[in-house]
Amino acid sequence: MFCSKCGTQLSEGSAFCSRCGASVAPVIGQVQPMGDVSPKSRLAVTLLAAFLGWVGAHRFYMGKAGTAVIMLLLGIAPIVCVIGMFVVAAVYVEQEDAPVLFWVFYGLAYVFGFAVGIWALVDFIIAVTGNFKDSKGKPIKKW
Known about the structure:
By secondary structure, the chain is mainly alpha-helical. It has 2 domains: about 1-35, no CATH class; about 40-130. It contains 4 helices and no strands. The radius of gyration is 23 Å and the shape is rod-shaped.
């Protein structure tokens, strides 16, 4: 049984929620609704943010396709920049000084990688604390 206000799991027969203090009215013969809590798994969001956050997998899971696509593009951009670095290095292998384009790709790889890494880390922290919201604005509380 879960609290309809905050989503905290309650022990059977509880009259009040131990977290928010809301009154719990047991419904006999029916499943108690979750209220304004997302049905998505908090564990899934947390693991996706931790391991595949750089491509926005957790945001795709939560139904936030717009920001997920932005994260995906930001996650792929450093890979493209590193490939560009290798191409520029291969073309100018005989020169001692690397051309400016090499350093541009190098800098962009770090900027894009840093941006998406910080974004994924912040999303991970928000998901662990249970404050991450799905596409309908409902917080994930259920592990």
